[in-house]
Design goal:
Strand content: under 5%
Structural class: mainly alpha
Number of helices: 12
CATH topology of the largest domain: Arc Repressor Mutant, subunit A
Largest sheet: none
CATH class of the largest domain: Mainly Alpha
Distance between the termini: 58 Å
Order of helices and strands: HHHHHHHHHHHH
Number of strands: 0
CATH architecture of the largest domain: Orthogonal Bundle
Length: about 220
Amino acid sequence: MHRAAADSEADTATRSDDDGPLLTDLRTGDEAAFVTLVERYHASLLRLARAYVPASTAEDVVQETWLAVLRGLETFQGRATFKTWLFRIATNRARTRAAREGRSIPFSTLVQDETDASEQAVDPARFQSADGRYPGHWLLKPLTDGLPEERVLAGELDAVMRNAIAGLPPAQSQVVRLRDIDGLSSEEVCQVLQLTEGNQRVLLHRGRSKLRAVLEDYVTTRAN
């Protein structure tokens, strides 16, 4: 399959796109619009690339991604969000580089290993319900009641959780990052990572469960 065609596979479902005005400006040659998009997504793309390739290579992958965006912009029809399309391009580039350099186990293998593995279930009551403000996310407030406020405000808790995400099994870490840091929907994550909805749900639940345990340990330690 031609690379441009492969990169456009994520452009599949009609969605609103907050980046639309910037894309319109970019198509007219507005360099400022391109700079804004790079500033908005560069850090996220680096995190995504580093899940597949070393940090020294991730920057190259991101640069290749932005070049692919510029070359393929006219073929982007907006049937998916720009963000989904962008992340799919980055994922394809990172996987190709990792395979070429022999530095990565195929993502599909990681997914199978992590979803097939037996893990102890976590009580669903420990997460926000479907009608909560953030369905499926952790119930943070009860845990942080006894935590000195200055620690949370200083970002210590955020750093703890980001480190914990980095320590998750690779597929779980990737799904949690895309959902909880980059804000993609379950549908978008499935498109970017080429996952079934079932596997995406399992990986997200297991990843969040592990992070919940880290959070509880942190709060218990710091509150005492």
